[in-house]
Structures are given as structure tokens and as C-alpha cells.
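Aspartokinase
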Amino acid sequence: PVITGFIGATEHGATTTLGRGGSDYSGAIIGAALDADEVAIYPDVDGVMTTDPRLAPDARVIPTISFAEMGELAYFGAKVLHPRTIRPVVEHGIPLRIRNTFNAAHTGTLVVSEPVANGRPIKAVTTIQSMSMITVEGRGMIGVPGVAARTFGAVASVGPNVLLISQAS
């Protein structure tokens, strides 16, 4: 079946839009519920690119990519697919095809559990705008309980989305 997924309803029955990636996510959920052979998502690009083509004009379409790789790319900045879209298709082992709405001749990208290896360990690079990094270091922290808790408490009070935490002694 062909469905639209951008429109939904609130808990009170009012019609609403689901926001960025809403149609991707609802399509994956419905595809999983129907045990579809494949879920196809149609953005306005030819597929998953090696990087943002606005930043690197020589970016290329990746023909096949794994669920894990696609999940990482989506989580860390690739806008072609909403990060939550991956989970329903992974849980049901359903391949996900990403094809351009405006370029039907292009085969797009196939996202599967184990793609054919192409000999390139790095498939794509993403960017995240407006990212900040905090480094807390020094000998005065060694053996002092609560330093990490106070640091993360201060960060939490501002409300950012923390993407990565690395801690060593």
C-alpha cells in the first residue's frame, strides 16, 4: 500500500502534523505492522549520500548500507531519515529503500541488516550544526567524588541534548 504519514491526530482527535520525519517513522511502523517485504521512504534526494551535498558537491549516493550505519548517520546529523525510523524495520528485518520523489529512475539506497562489503570502511561523514564540547580535566579531580555528577547537573540545567560522554582517569 501507499500511505501518507505526515498527518495524524492528537489524543483528543484533532488533526495535526507529525513534524520532521513523521512520515518516515509512521511509514516504518505501518510497514512493520503489515510485515511488509520492503518499506520505501521518498525524500527529495536520490538516497543516502556520502556527506551533505550542500557542503561537498562531489557527494555520492550510497547504494547499500546497514541498519546500524544508517541509524548512526541519522542520529548524528544526516537529515535524509529520522533516527526513529530505523527501529521498526530492524525489529522486523524489513529492508528500507530510500528513493527520490522527483527522480524515479534512480534506485536510491537500500538499507539492510548486512550489506555487501564495498572495501571502504568509511561510508559517510555527517555534520551537526551548533555543537558544543565541554572538557573537564585536571589532577584535582582524581579521587574526588561527585565531580561528574556536578558537571552533568550543570549541563542538564541548561537542557541540551547530550550526544556523547567520554570519561577517563
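thats it. The chain has one domain: 37-157. The CA atoms of residues 153 and 159 lie 10 Å apart. bye
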